[in-house]
Specification:
- Helix content is 60%, strand content 2%.
- It is mostly helical.
- The protein has three domains: 13-85, Arc Repressor Mutant, subunit A (Orthogonal Bundle); 103-199; 245-324, no CATH class.
- It has a two-stranded antiparallel ribbon with strand order 1-2.
- The protein is elongated.
- The N and C termini lie far apart (101 Å).
């Protein structure tokens, strides 16, 4: 009599390294695991990144990131598309002590492509409660687990640059509040905060409050000016200055109207000249601006008491604007 054991789906199996589960299951993303499983199932076949992306339902960049991840944790090795099981021994190294680098070094790190090994990031998450909270804050706002590139950025910001974790948490929350929580944008904010000495919660709160006012003003002015594109860096400097001078929105609107009447177009330098002149005079409302009219009353000596009216102020502003051109 003949016998056969029917294992059903188990008749076709493939091996998965134990370390994938034992050591990397917590730190690998679902996309990383999908790419690895597909490659293990189809070992020996030649595929383009686009083919793998299509087969597992991710984009090409995610496939490339998955290869880097599994190479960093020692599961695979190789180059130029020829990958193989890693033959090297996995050596555990102690996490170096965290030191705050020199300012010029720290800023340079923000523009570099520093890559922390996934194992080191996992160790930081498991052993450093503050850093774990930072990652959890990101995940809570994103509504998903952090990607390797995002955790790597948080490591660069807190460990290489030296921004305190509690300040980094506030920075992450701010970036999400304006829908710009990408690694590149977080690095740009971190660079600005580092150079500005934002290293305490109080300083971070003050900076965020100022940024919210400026962003709100920028959005309103884009609508007011009918601009389809973002403001230039120089235009943002003017807007930031107006925010810092606490110039009322109604005065900015009034200056805009007078700029159009005088120059026939939107001119930030001309608007800035008018607004600074009003600020120097202490004007905070349009009523104060419009109330400054020529006085025709005679003084004690029989002369006519004259004051600078708004038209003269505009002429002076326009002359200064023309000299700047």
């Amino acid at each position: 009599m003949a016998y056969r054991l029917n294992l059903g789906a188990w008749n076709s199996v493939f091996a998965v390294p134990s370390c994938v589960v034992d050591e990397n299951i917590k730190i690998a993303s679902g996309e990383h695991i999908k790419v690895l499983l597909y490659m293990l199932r189809n070992s020996g076949n030649l595929f383009l990144s686009e083919d793998i992306a299509s087969a597992v339902g991710v984009d090409k960049n995610t496939v490339e990131e998955a290869f880097i991840f599994w190479q960093n944790v020692g599961v695979i090795s190789g180059e130029k598309g020829e990958l193989m099981p890693s033959a090297s021994e996995r050596i555990e190294t102690a996490k170096p002590a965290i030191t705050v680098p020199e300012r010029n070094t720290a800023v340079a790190k923000l523009t570099s492509d520093t890559q922390f090994p996934p194992k080191e990031i996992a160790n930081a998450v498991n052993s450093d409660r503050a850093f774990r909270y930072l990652c959890e804050t990101f995940e809570r706002h994103a509504g998903r687990p952090t990607k390797h590139s995002e955790r790597n950025t948080l490591m660069v910001i807190t460990e290489e640059v030296g921004i305190p974790v509690e300040v980094a948490v506030m920075m992450v929350e701010y970036c999400f509040s304006i829908d710009k929580a990408t690694p590149a944008y977080m690095k740009s904010v971190a660079k600005d905060w580092y150079e500005s000495g934002i290293d305490t919660i109080a300083k971070a709160e003050e900076r965020i409050a100022g940024l919210k006012v400026r962003n709100s003003l920028e959005g309103r002015l884009r609508t007011k000016f009918g601009m389809a594109t973002a403001f230039s860096a120089k235009q943002k400097e003017y807007i930031t200055a107006w925010s810092e001078l606490n110039i009322a929105d109604e005065l900015i609107d009034e200056a805009y109207e007078k700029t159009l009447n005088s120059t026939g177009k939107l001119s930030f330098p001309y608007m800035d000249t008018i607004l600074r002149s009003w600020a120097e005079k202490g004007y905070t409302t349009v009523e104060q601006v419009n109330s400054e009219k020529p006085s025709g009353s005679n003084n004690a000596s029989g002369g006519t008491a004259m004051s600078f009216d708004i038209d003269m102020l505009e002429e002076s502003a326009y002359e200064r604007y023309r000299r700047k051109k």
